[in-house]
Amino acid sequence: MSGDHQTLALLLFSVFIAVTLGITTWVGRNRQGSAEEFYAGGRLFSPMENGFAIAGDYMSAASFLGISGLIALFGYDGMLYSVGFLVAWLVVLLLVAELVRNCGRFTLADVVAARMAERPVRTAVGTSSVTVSVLYLVAQMVGAGSLVALLLGGTSDTARSWTVVGVGALMVIYVSFGGMRATTWIQIVKAVLLMAGAAVLTVLVLAHFHGDVNALLHTAAERSGHGRDFLSPGLRYGESWTARFDFISLGLALVLGTAGLPHILSRFYTVPTARAARRSVVWSIGLIGSFYLMTIVLGFGAAALVGSADVRASNASGNTAVPLLALVLGGGEGSTGGTVLFAVVAAVAFATILAVVAGITLASSASVAHDLYATFRRPGAEQRSEVAVARVAAVGVGVVAIALGLLAQDLNVAFLVGLAFAVAASANLPALLYSLFWRSFTTRGAVWAVYGGLVPAVLLVLLSPVVSGGPASLFPGVDFQLFPLENPGLVSIPAGFLAGWIGTVTSSGPPDEARHAETEVRSLTGAGAA
Amino acid sequence: MEKEAGPDAAATRLDDPWYDAPPPGWGEPDGAAGFAPDARTGPEMVRHPHSAADVYVEVQRSAAFREVRRRYRRFVVPASAAFLLWYLAYVVAATTAPGLMARPVVGALNVAMLAGLGQFLTTFVLTWAYVRHARLHRDRAALELRWDTQEMTRGIGR
């Protein structure tokens, strides 16, 4: 990559950072620090704004660069991700969004704890929410470091480390000074940039083939070196039964985990009503769906125009497929068009990372302050002080994420995103669905559902090939691998649901009918909603 | 996705989620502006519950609420089961039956491609169907229940 790319890309990065810091300052003035303002941005965003923000929160650099790259390398098997990431939104739309908006105030634990003994349930759900957020955050931070290094050509360790520190510092500034309002606007700006960038590249790819998708697919198959196999499943996940079950496990985690991601759920509190939450999800399904359709075109486009071999040569996991494609579409290395498009793609990827990490940092600071701290503080402390705690928690989360990001930057942490989804699906989703839909659900059931999903998910990963026992493991030297799959979802998701059921049927006291009535009436009508 | 309302467009305008539901007490000094008592379809207001908990139990047992709940569940339970099964079938077929999935259909498109695009299509269609169902069969009744419930809980110690 030449110096021109770097200069232009760095310029665009700086512009984006300046704009986002401007948003943060603009949003931060004249606002008193109420919890409503900090966690929910005042609850008056429109469905369209929130829909863009949800899309901006959800579509990570891993989707933009990672999925297109997987498609460029493995063809159809990369597409399986796109489908899973989209279908997941039906769970959110049908079962979760409106009811959560009606029942909760700021966090997932609000909903689950509403009918239960507050303290143990809040602690459990708060713990699993923070776990999910930190896993996701570390994956994004490490990704940011290697991505920026990759895009700017500087592969030195110092550049990567400073990127991790810089991204961490920025997200802490956005969140602690701007709260939900600044985070939302940053996500909206990012969603617009990402959609526009992907749309431009998609149009250029299709124009290159004169709109003939058939020709695109045929060329992609030809230049991939796999022929027609490239267009059907099996290149990545078809080699063994372990690989097959691994993908089924991941697919399950993707589709069920989205509805348990704390940073996604907290977005529904930024709109005034459940129906506005529903319409936000409709907007985000439209945006996310078209985005993943575009990643498919970009992935096959990269295979057709760059060639799978060149993509693999540049980066073994395919993360540079889209930037390379941009270079070719703009006219090739050294041309002005290529330089500009490449820099734009790099800047969009950077914006994507910043918006996603800001959303996760906010959600985890909310879990720490509103769920964990608020449970243990002395009664009678004001809400005002909770926001102060949340700001400090954002700094704490940032420091932890930077530290873990720096420690893990030489490790292959791609599995962390899958793990975050698996924990969300195994611990958060059972507790959430049971408390919304099951009359007899009890406090013990809720606590068991959370820990019964969280503990197996984490334990199974520790015992899996990603940690030990293989050449690509975190600790290749030792072997305590007992569980064959990289993603624990296939086991831990049923475990979470089962534990919640067992905990409930073995509870001694009867469930609280009156509070179940309150939850059910509030969830379906919106009576008394915050 | 919600703009195809047609004949009932005027009715749904009132229900626009963005404009509805100011919290009780906002701009309605007597607390009941715009709601004629005889227009209520919610739980009857004759009994005087002693606490908010009683109100919620009473509303939960009312026919109007049971109808809203029934309509919601009768849509989402089968729909969720259907799309989850369809997705699982797709993932399992893609990983375990590559031969079937590789069968060519037309041009470069094979069964796998069509199934994948079909997942996108069914997601969009189900989104549209859910939103339409909620708007036509649930929103108005739920909103009325919301006002009634809030009216009943007002002034009662919780």
Automatic annotation (TrEMBL), chain A:
Read off the InterPro entries from this record. Na/Glc_symporter_sf (IPR038377), Na/solute_symporter (IPR001734), Sodium:Solute_Symporter (IPR050277)
- Quick one: where's region Disordered? 509-530
The answer to whether keyword rRNA-binding applies is: no
Q: Principal localization?
A: membrane
Transmembrane portions of the chain: 6-27, 52-74, 80-100, 121-139, 159-177, 189-209, 247-269, 281-306, 340-366, 387-407, 413-434, 446-467
Record-linked PROSITE patterns:
NA_SOLUT_SYMP_3
Which keywords does UniProt give here?
A: Cell membrane, Membrane, Symport, Transmembrane, Transmembrane helix, Transport
- Source domain of life is Bacteria
Cell compartments where the protein resides: Cell membrane
- Membrane topology field: Multi-pass membrane protein
Which residue intervals are annotated with compositional bias (Basic and acidic residues) in the record?
512-521
| CDD domains cross-referenced by the UniProt entry | SLC5sbd_u4
| Annotated PANTHER family | CATION_ACETATE SYMPORTER ACTP, SODIUM/PROLINE SYMPORTER-RELATED
Question: What family does the Swiss-Prot or TrEMBL record give for this protein?
Answer: Belongs to the sodium:solute symporter (SSF) (TC 2.A.21) family.
Know the name of this protein? Cation/acetate symporter
TrEMBL record, chain B:
Q: Does the keyword Membrane apply?
A: yes
Q: Return the annotated region ranges for Disordered.
A: 1-43
Keyword list (alphabetical) reads:
Membrane, Transmembrane, Transmembrane helix
Residues that span the membrane, as ranges: 75-93, 105-131
Q: Does the keyword Transmembrane helix apply?
A: yes
Q: What is this protein identified as?
A: Uncharacterized membrane protein (DUF485 family)
**Native source species:** Streptomyces clavifer
